[in-house]
Give the backbone structure.
Amino acid sequence: MNSLHNPQSETMLQPFKLRTERLLLRQWQPDDFKAFAEMNADPEVMRCFPSRLTRFESDALAKRCQELIAENGWGLWAAEIIGSTEFIGFVGLHGNNSLPFPPCTEVGWRLKRSAWGQGFATEAARACLQFAFETMMLDEVVSFTSVCNRRSQGVMQRLQMLDSGHNFRHPDIPRHHLLSEHVLYKISHERWQHGRNSL
Ligand SMILES: CC(C)(COP(=O)(O)OP(=O)(O)OC[C@H]1O[C@@H](n2cnc3c(N)ncnc32)[C@H](O)[C@@H]1OP(=O)(O)O)[C@@H](O)C(=O)NCCC(=O)NCCS
């Protein structure tokens, strides 16, 4: 799926915004870039990635996220705390077709360290799954991370995603690198719907 009619706008495609109890997921703004670069230079945030990002690399990633949201209306949204307007990282959806399994839509997250341990990633990702299943009408959403990334797997488990058991080597990471092996979690529309109905 490339683009959607956005009911928030009758005349032109405006990026979707998702609102949760504490967070707003929105299009990236110029002010986010500096805070994002600081996150991407933090060794703790980047512990499960092959390397930290330079300012140039970080800006390029933010710009790519911004462009994809502008094109499609959805994507890896910038997350801010409602009320403070503080940028805390990204949470969102990303279409992937360069992995060793069929094209899929991934739910993903990266938050600055001071925003960890407060349930923000899970809260925002729940809104993304709702968007994926109710607005994009997807059958399935996946998530993946390196085997050592327990915090990220914790988010997947809190979302009731299931470990597929099909670990894979990420094609962008050298095969024998410690971070190469990834877990693959999935959630179907049916499972998500069942989880909502049993709340
Ligand atoms: C992955 C990442 C987003 C997870 O962050 P996180 O804070 O562990 O996850 P959540 O936001 O869901 O918060 C859950 C924690 O908040 C706690 N919490 C506190 N208040 C809460 C509340 N009101 N509601 C829910 N949980 C709350 C939970 O008990 C849990 O604590 P625990 O870690 O001690 O079990 C974060 O570690 C990160 O950005 N890492 C670097 C980037 C990265 O690795 N991204 C994934 C790559 S694929």
Remarks:
- The pocket of coenzyme A is lined by residues 45, 48, 108-111, 116-122, 145, 149, 151-152, 154-155, 158 (CB under 6 Å).
- The chain has one domain: 18-197.
